[in-house]
């Protein structure tokens, strides 16, 4: 089974998870793939809206939503903190090697430039 893991349920993580799940919905429905989002709180905060709070045009409460409501039904949501990632990298010659890295989640998607990744 193919597994796609998205770290962080921010704008990027939510968007990526939903786009992927819709693109591979047949494989997910057939049990051949799964998409999982790991988010520390399970609450989505639309940070780009913060500038409208400062201008008095937005209620801060309206920028918070339960992450589950924003995700496609095919996407699994895990609420928790990522402490390590064991990654299997497939090479062009069909060999595989294992690479371990540690990560601190910071609203990243697959991972985005905001992800802090370093050797263990």
Structure description:
With 120 residues, the protein is of the alpha/beta class. The protein has a single domain (2-119), classed as FAD/NAD(P)-binding domain. The protein contains four helices and eight strands. It has helices at residues 11-23, 25-29, 50-54, 67-70; strands spanning 2-7, 33-39, 43-45, 64-66, 75-79, 85-90, 96-104, 116-119. The strands form three sheets. The chain has a three-stranded parallel beta sheet. Strands 6-7-8 form a three-stranded antiparallel beta sheet, with no helix packed on it. A hairpin with a 5-residue loop joins strand 6 (85-90) and strand 7. The protein is elongated.
Figure out the total of helices.
4
Query: How do the helices and strands follow one another from N- to C-terminus?
Result: EHHEEHEHEEEE
Major sheet description = 3 strands, parallel
Instruction: Find the count of extended strands (DSSP E, 2+ residues).
Output: 8
Counting helices, strands and paired strands, the structural category is alpha/beta
| Unreliably modeled segments | 91-120
Overall 3D form: elongated
Mean pLDDT: 78
What's the quick description here?
22% of the residues lie in helices and 36% in strands. By secondary structure, the protein is α/β, with parallel strands linked by helices. The strands form three sheets. Strands 1-2-5 form a three-stranded parallel sheet.
Q: Helices, strands, pairings?
A:
Elements: E1 2-7, H1 11-23, H2 25-29, E2 33-39, E3 43-45, H3 50-54, E4 64-66, H4 67-70, E5 75-79, E6 85-90, E7 96-104, E8 116-119
Parallel strand pairs: 1-2, 2-5
Antiparallel strand pairs: 3-4, 6-7, 7-8
